[in-house]
Amino acid sequence: MPSLTVENYLKAALQLELKSGQSRVSPGALSARLKVSPGTVTSMLKTLSESGLANYVPYEGVELTSSGRKLAMRMLRRHRLIELFLHSTLNLTWDQVHEEAEELEHAVSEFLIDRIDDFLEHPETDPHGSPIPAADGQMRGDFSGTVPLDQCKVGSDVRFVRVVNQQPDFLRYLSESGFELGAVGRIVENSEDAGVVRSDIDGVQFTVGLNAAQTIRVEPVASSL
């Protein structure tokens, strides 16, 4: 059975791969995501490579093997289903579920995860709008039509469908600003000079920096005018 550390590295590598669209992940990106030293990352990547879970090439990066990707997808499925279960059943807020899921994902059985999936009626997304893998490893839902908020033009109407930045403070700020996933809003300001994007949802406006706007995914909707 893989160790907790191995599972965390594989899941992190998969998430970085999905984010960038590139199969090879740099050690530096893993170091930043896992908040560990580059030397620690290099040592673990060698271990993963020796175990047949990844192909690591020094100075180039690491790529998950089919077995490594399967295990990583299983961990991602666990994490996101647990987040949704905690949110929808135990009423934890979306800024609370991540850390709890980080602990629980290593302790639950596949049987329990499948039962949670059945109980939730095979959901497509977690509380942050991130797609949930099915038991066969395929991502549910079609998110090909989404774009980052910072790419939207002033006056365009959009539906907010995903928040990639899951820092609790940021999620709480969005909630306190009237933001909700699934809500439709209008872009009222997108200024590179000011470094902000301002959106209006039912008369309530919220503002985020351009970097934060890159982590909010939206889909265009027909104008209500």
UniProtKB/TrEMBL annotation:
Keyword Zinc-finger tagged: no
Protein's UniProt keywords contain Protein transport: no
GO molecular function: DNA binding; DNA-binding transcription factor activity; protein dimerization activity; transition metal ion binding
Keywords: Activator, Cytoplasm, DNA-binding, Iron, Manganese, Repressor, Transcription, Transcription regulation
Location(s), subcellular: Cytoplasm
SMART domains recorded: FeoA, HTH_DTXR
Primary site of residence: cytoplasm
Domain HTH dtxR-type: 1-65
Assigned GO CC terms: cytoplasm
Family: Belongs to the DtxR/MntR family.
PANTHER family the UniProt entry points to: IRON (METAL) DEPENDENT REPRESSOR, DTXR FAMILY, TRANSCRIPTIONAL REGULATOR MNTR
Subunit structure: Homodimer.
Chain's role: In the presence of manganese, represses expression of mntH and mntS. Up-regulates expression of mntP.
Protein name (database record): Transcriptional regulator MntR
Species in which this protein is naturally found: Fuerstiella marisgermanici
Gene designation per UniProt: ideR
